[in-house]
Amino acid sequence: MTRIVAYAQGTDLPASQAFYTEVLGLEVVMREPVLGLASPVNPSTQVIIPPAGMEDPAPSFGLDLGDPAAVDAAHAAALERGLRVVYPIRDEPWGVRRFFVEDPGGTIINVLAHLS
């Protein structure tokens, strides 16, 4: 795994952007399809804010496994264990391979890796 990414609610993206950049000092690293903000000191430390209603169910956080093959392996392992996959595995147009899985406690996790 290369990083864990936090997610925040996205009901007002301009206000969220102002808060995270002006108050907390993060930098905008992505605007579409989600607002991505990163630490200027450690760019792998990120907060992702999807627009309201973009994902249903919405994940609580993301785990970047670093390699699409690792995403495929995690998907297979989740299915073998009978875990609930709530968003099917797929390659997204913005360049990630991902799926959402529900952990045993009910938390939805976005398991992903960048394609390039």
Automatic annotation (TrEMBL):
<dbReference type="GO" id="GO:0016829">
    <property type="term" value="F:lyase activity"/>
</dbReference>
<keyword id="KW-0560">Oxidoreductase</keyword>
<protein>
    <submittedName>
        <fullName>Catechol 2,3-dioxygenase-like lactoylglutathione lyase family enzyme</fullName>
    </submittedName>
</protein>
<dbReference type="InterPro" id="IPR004360">
    <property type="entry name" value="Glyas_Fos-R_dOase_dom"/>
</dbReference>
<dbReference type="GO" id="GO:0051213">
    <property type="term" value="F:dioxygenase activity"/>
</dbReference>
<keyword id="KW-0223">Dioxygenase</keyword>
<keyword id="KW-0456">Lyase</keyword>
<dbReference type="InterPro" id="IPR029068">
    <property type="entry name" value="Glyas_Bleomycin-R_OHBP_Dase"/>
</dbReference>
<dbReference type="Pfam" id="PF00903">
    <property type="entry name" value="Glyoxalase"/>
</dbReference>
<dbReference type="InterPro" id="IPR037523">
    <property type="entry name" value="VOC_core"/>
</dbReference>
<feature type="domain" description="VOC">
    <location>
        <begin position="1"/>
        <end position="114"/>
    </location>
</feature>
